Amino acid sequence: KPKVYLATTVPAEVEAYIAAHCAYGKWDQREPIPRERLLEEISDAEGLLTVGGRIDGELLELAPRLKVVSNVSVGYNNMDLAAMKKRGVMGTNTPHVLDETVADLAFALILSTARRVPELDRHVKEGKWERTSDERLFGVDVHHKTLGIIGMGRIGEAIARRGKLGFGMEVLYYNRRRKPEAEEKLGVAYRQLADLLRESDFVVLMVPLQKETTHLMGSEQFALMKETAIFINTSRGKTVDEAALIEALREKQIWGAGLDVFDEEPVSPANPLLAMPNVVTLPHIGSATRQTRFAMAMAAAKNLVAAVQGQVPPDLIPELRAGVEEPQ
Ligand code: 8YV
C-alpha cells in the first residue's frame, strides 16, 4: 500500500477509508502539528493530508516521494503551486461540499452585525435592558437593501441566492471574470469594484487569497463605501489591509464589520477590532459544522487516495488541474 501522512485528525470513518487503501502515519493531537515534526514525518510519504499547512520548496525537498497534497479546505493559498508543479506534486482541495455552509455563515454575520446581536445579547445578560422602545437598541435593516459580493464563485453564488430569494435584496457582484451565466441564473448585476462599493449597503468579500487579491480591500476601497454600509469578510484575512479597516471603522467611514477571518490567526486579543462593539468577530468557522467538515475530510481523503493510486480526482478544479499529468 502507498504510504501517506495525515497532518490533521479526521473522523474515524474517514481514517478507515484511508486505511483500506494506504499505509499511513498521523498527527492525532488537536493543535496543529509543529512544522519541524511534519518535516520529519513526511520524508517517505507519497501523499499528505493537511488543513492549510504551508507547502513550499523546503517541505517538498524533504518529501521526495510526494505525489499529492490534499487540503481539507476549499482555499489553497497554503500551496506554492509553482514549486509543486516543478516536482510533479498535485494539489487538491474540497470545493462544493462547503458552499452552502459558508454562505449560511456569511448571512449569520450580515444579520448579527446589522442587528447588533452579540452586543445586545451581552446587554441583556449584563442586566442593562431597561426598555424595549429604546433607539439605543436600533440596528439596520437587511431585507430589500443592496448586497455587493466581491467574488462570484460557488460560495459567492450561494450568498447571492440567499440575498435575492431570502431577503429580497438587490445583488451586485464584482468578479475578475464577468459571469453572464450567473447574471442570467441568479438575477445579479455586474459592477466594477468602485461602483459596487459606492452602491452597496452590505459588502461581502469572498475571493480566494492570491497575489492579485492580497489587500484587495484597503483605505481607498473603504473610503468609497457608504457610511451606513457593513463590511463582511468570509474569505481570508489577508485579502484586507487590516490597518485600513481599523482606520475606516474608527473614522466611521463604514457602519460596522462582520469578520470570520483575520490577518493573523488566531487573532491577537490586543487587536483593536475586538474592542469595537460594531464589529462581530468569529474564529474562522465558515465551514465549521459537523456534517460539512465530515464531507470535507472524506472528499480530501478520496482525493489523496486517488492521487497516490495515479489517478486525477474527477472534480479537481481548473486552477489546480493546470499542468497535472492525466494518467495515460
Ligand atoms: C478552513 C476554509 O479549511 O475551506 C476553507 O478554505 O477556510 C475553512 O473551511 C477551516 O476553517 C480550517 O481552517
UniProtKB/TrEMBL annotation:
Keywords: Oxidoreductase. Residues 16-316 form the D-isomer specific 2-hydroxyacid dehydrogenase catalytic domain. InterPro entries: D-isomer_2-hydroxyacid_DH, D-isomer_2_OHA_DH_cat_dom, D-isomer_DH_CS1, D-isomer_DH_NAD-bd, NAD(P)-bd_dom_sf. It comes from the Bacteria. Residues 107-286 form the D-isomer specific 2-hydroxyacid dehydrogenase NAD-binding domain. Gene3D superfamilies: NAD(P)-binding Rossmann-like Domain (3.40.50.720). Pfam families: 2-Hacid_dh (PF00389), 2-Hacid_dh_C (PF02826). Belongs to the D-isomer specific 2-hydroxyacid dehydrogenase family. This is D-glycerate dehydrogenase. The lineage of its organism: Bacteria, Bacillati, Bacillota, Bacilli, Bacillales.
